[in-house]
Amino acid sequence: MQLRNVYFSGLLTLCATGAFAQSSQTLTGTVSDSMCGAKHMMKDATPAKCTRECVKMGSDYALVSGGKVYTLKGNSAQLDKFAGQSAQVTGKVSGSTVTVDSISAAK
Q: E-assigned strands of the chain?
């Protein structure tokens, strides 16, 4: 019986730790795509056009911030509005993925 209580307490602690690890954060950077990251590969195309074309070919939207590239998961139509632009993204960060709660023009 005591072993079951210890196991249950440990499980609750582990779940609570996971919940706190995914608290909302705000990042500022440039909206790009996960394939190109900070350096767009399409010659003679603006960063916005390159981002949109890469997304059409299956790449994910991404945020380049502080030298890191975060994959953005969220409303594609909303993310598309900021393609190639500096933006402020608020969402849950898990490794290199951000689940977007909101996105707006960077201040």
A: 24-33, 61-65, 68-73, 86-94, 97-105
User: What's the CA gap between 73 and 55, in Å, rounded?
Assistant: 12
Question: Is residue 90 a contact partner of residue 74, using CB atoms and an 8 Å limit?
Answer: no
| Backbone torsions φ then ψ of 78, nearest 5 degrees | -70, -45
User: Taking a C-beta distance cutoff of 8 angstroms, is the pair 33, 72 a contact?
Assistant: no
Mean pLDDT of the chain: 86
| Residues 34, 62 contacting (CB under 8 angstroms) | yes
Q: Is 67 exposed, middle or buried (0-12, 13-18, 19+ CB in 10 A)?
A: exposed
- Amino acid identity, position 1: M
- Give the closest residue to 29 by CA, choosing from 78, 85, 94, 102: 85
| Amino acid (1-letter code) at residue 86 | S
pLDDT tens per residue, range 20-66: 556 899 999 999 999 999 999 888 999 999 999 999 999 999 999 99
